[in-house]
Design brief:
Layout lengths: L1 H31 L18 H5 L4 E8 L2 E8 L7 E6 L13 H6 L3 E6 L17 H16 L4 E7 L1 H12 L5 E5 L5 H12 L5 H19 L7 H4 L8 E6 L7 H10 L5 E5 L7 H5 L1 H12 L22
Parallel strand pairs: 3-4, 3-5, 5-6, 6-7, 7-8
Antiparallel strand pairs: 1-2, 2-4
Length: about 325
């Protein structure tokens, strides 16, 4: 009888372990490939809108390498006047280069060139159906984009992203000195906490320890599943950006990424980052919510990167970039 009981007990533990593993696998898949994620067929897909069709702005199709045998693709919109300032935009999960088309007229009016591109596994950039890469792979894409802009003659490079893109912007700037500044909205500070937030929500705030453990387990499984050999959390890297400026934005009504992520990121900069909480904004819609105020805050942030030699706004001769039509 005791042997039977022990056998049944062991079988029960194995069953529980399998159920937990299956649940973690499903959550891991949802983390990297949410239901709305699907990379289009590059042979047939055509973007239904472009900078020209949406905002009347000319653009150049660009492509550049990110790793051996892998290519990133996007649009480069030149500035209205000669300028060495470029804003590299980074989309979030299930997004592509079109995510920041809504910001394009604002950034263009502020005198910046703008690079809108698809990170790997999205849009028309190369991918293998693995979904997102916990901002680590996306940060490598951002670094490749910044280096491409530097090669094209841009001397001031700002990365701007929201959600996953904001996290990638932070990691990229921490690694790449060519990046001069960061605008990060609704950014995930730690993916373990991001997963744990939803676990705690399901548990109605009870057993915080379970949320923390589950978050670590799901992120660890995700790294194995997508072959991510390295992992760093934005909260643990953001201090390395200093003394370069960082502008953190978060919506007070964001139900996707909790405000605690923004608070942690701000804390990790020692309070040095500029932090703006838009009380009425949800997830990644600060621009739509705050309108002219948003543009004014971004204008003030970008203003510190312009290289001008007179009050008229003409670029200094030694900083004029190559022309790209």
């Amino acid at each position: 009888m005791r042997v039977i009981t022990l056998t049944l007990g062991a079988a029960g533990l194995v069953a529980i372990a399998l159920v937990l593993l299956l649940a973690a696998w499903r959550e891991s898949k949802g983390l990297t490939s949410p239901p709305s994620y699907s990379q289009p067929d590059p042979e047939t897909f055509v973007f239904p809108e472009t900078p020209q069709s949406r905002s009347g702005l000319p653009y150049e199709d660009v492509s550049f390498a990110v790793a051996p045998g892998q290519t990133l693709r996007g649009w480069l919109v030149p500035s209205a006047d000669e300028s060495d300032l470029v804003v590299v935009t980074l989309h979030g999960r299930s997004g592509d280069r079109r995510t920041h088309l809504k910001h394009l007229p604002m950034l263009h009016d502020l005198g910046a060139a703008v690079l809108l591109f698809d990170m790997r596994e999205n849009g028309l950039s190369d991918g293998q159906g693995r979904g997102t890469g916990l901002a680590v792979r996306e940060a490598r894409d951002a670094v490749a984009a910044a280096r491409e802009m530097h090669e094209r003659g841009y001397g001031r490079i700002v990365v701007m992203g929201c959600s996953l893109g904001g996290s990638a912007a932070i990691l990229a700037a921490a690694q790449e000195p060519l990046i001069d500044g960061v605008i990060a909205e609704a950014s995930i500070a730690r993916f373990e906490d991001f997963v744990g937030d939803y676990t705690r929500q399901r548990l109605r705030g009870r057993a915080d320890w379970a949320g923390r453990m589950w978050g670590r387990f799901v992120v660890g499984l995700t790294r194995l599943r997508i072959g991510l050999d390295e992992y760093a959390a934005p909260a643990d890297m953001i201090a390395d950006i200093s003394p370069r400026p960082v502008f953190l934005i978060h919506g007070g009504q964001d139900s996707v990424v909790k405000r605690s992520h923004a608070d942690l990121l701000h804390q990790k900069t020692g309070g040095q980052a500029e932090f703006w909480l838009i009380e009425d904004a949800g997830h990644c819609n600060g621009f739509e919510t705050a309108g002219e105020i948003y543009q004014g805050r971004v204008a003030a942030f970008l203003g510190q990167f312009r290289t001008r030699d007179d009050a008229t706004g003409s670029p200094s001769p030694e900083t004029q970039p190559e022309q790209h039509q």
